Amino acid sequence: MFSIDSEAFQPPVDILLVEDNAGDVFLIEHAMHGCSANCNIYLVQDGEAAMRFLQKTGEYATSPRPQLIFLDLNLPGKDGREVLEEIKADPNLMNIPVVVLTECNSKKDILRSYQNYANCYITKPFHLNQYNQTIKTITNFWLNYAQLPSKDLTGQPKALSGQPFLVIRS
User: Fold this and answer.
1) CATH code, 47
2) Which of 8, 33, 117, 162: disulfide with 88, CB 3.0–4.6 Å?
3) Rounded to two decimals, what is the model's pTM?
4) Are 159 and 165 in contact (CB under 8 A)?
5) In whole angstroms, what is the distance from residue 123 CA to residue 102 CA?
6) Which residues are paired to 40 by β-bridges?
């Protein structure tokens, strides 16, 4: 008889990649597949599609809830800045970690991203080897060291000991 060590078996992590540049998509997917982490990567190429995916509407009605989002800021239509704001304002989505992965190195964009609760802000390197290493390092950290929310979390506040749960936001 053979048994599986439940600690050793890790189900794949669902990652939503929000990126419109085909070259960056190729490099990111290539680097992620070179990591030892087990993940499913779902790609959308604009902000509207990202929100439909996350809200499970239209063609994304059966999409999985990602446990991690890689988000470019410069997207056609609704940009990544707006997407980040919507994600972090939605109680059903706000607990999904968002890694901003962009060419923008603007202090204003960095500050705005953190003010909107981005979990980290990474500027894409220009050199291929650095780009590859950066993606591998990010993926390794988020999939092998950080504790991600489980797939079944809804983000809804829960009552404690039968008492209503009060959330106060400034």
Assistant:
1) 3.40.50.2300
2) 117
3) 0.82
4) yes
5) 5
6) 14
